[in-house]
Amino acid sequence: MINCEKGKWKIFDRTLHDTHENEWLSLREIVTLSSNIGAAKVAKLEGNESVYKTIKKFGFGDPCNIGLNAETAGYIQPVTEWGEIAYAQIAMGHNITTSLLQMVMAYCAIANGGLLLKPYIVKSAYTPDNKLDYSSDVTVIRRATSKKTAKELRNMLENVVSEGTGQNAYIPGYKIAGKTGTAQKVINGKYSKTKFMSSFIGFFPSNKPILVCGITLDSPVYGRHYGGTASAPAVKNVFTQIINTTDFNDLYDWLQPTNQAETIKNDKSNIEINTPVYASIEKKSDNNIQKIKNQRNKKSIVEQRKTENDNVQVIMPNLIGHSYSQARYILTNLNLQIKTNTIIGKITKQSPKAGLKIFTNSECNLTLNGNK
Prior knowledge:
The chain is of the alpha+beta class and about 375 residues long. Among the domains are: about 145-300, Beta-Lactamase, CATH 3.30.450; about 305-370, Trypsin Inhibitor V, Chain A (2-Layer Sandwich). Helix content is about 30%, strand content about 25%. The strands form 9 sheets. It has a 3-stranded antiparallel β-sheet with strand order 11-12-13, sandwiched between helices. It has a 3-stranded mixed β-sheet with strand order 17-20-18, with helices on one face. Strand 2 and strand 3 (about 15) form a beta hairpin. Helix 5 crosses helix 6 (about 145-165).
């Protein structure tokens, strides 16, 4: 347990403040309630060297190498240059600069079990005659944290949405994990008391992540400038719109909502959240919900782009671990034929191998383990 000093802690000539006057908090509660003081004291216990190494492992201070000239690497001072209270400042987001993409990369590492991955703007590109021109492979930069720690962090971040400052990102029936961020802007060399950067980064579903989304708002209205109030609803809306698409539901048919009727409240913003699973934040009427359900029955963009040309080459996807229905959806959209030993269980073998270029209408042989 960490003593959070009832929301006010004097450290040398500075005073750290929390929004809430909490006293003793666990690490989970520190993350859930966004305690600056708790984070600073945890950093002190870890030590400067450990904090610095962890920051660097997650990619902060290094360029993402996405191919854009204007990309910033951000900056974190070498640990040898840290002042007496640098650990406390960095723990709450001061004395470090970063980009939204770098933060999203860090959350991806937490979501996928601890691996820092290289980001891409374009996954693949095709020529006008539908020949594959470019494709990006998944590239692991390094292990940022252990699988065990990543799992613990996912549980903490899920708690932020279910009980803490990120409740406005909650979608009834689904598990969402994420973290709010509220950073003072530097204006004329000083931290502003009225201008903030509001952010929320989340992943969905938290127990088996598929999507990661990060949104930052520059100078939202003061008084409603907190990450949980300004940015969390925007991330919720993005996830909701994606959930409503035909492609998503066909590809991830195993993902089903649990309790759609559950309602929670965010005490800070006094906003009640009871959005139907098939509606976005604004679309709450019965007519709109029915309209969205009808839209889900339309052909997807992928289906509309199918071609009957046998001379088109595609890359064989990695289907190991997928179900038959998932593989069928993926291969059908690539105009590939399917041959299996059974439709029950998970895929354990595939031919051709993942990554090979093959022509459309080629036959793909899949072996499933038959386990229900």
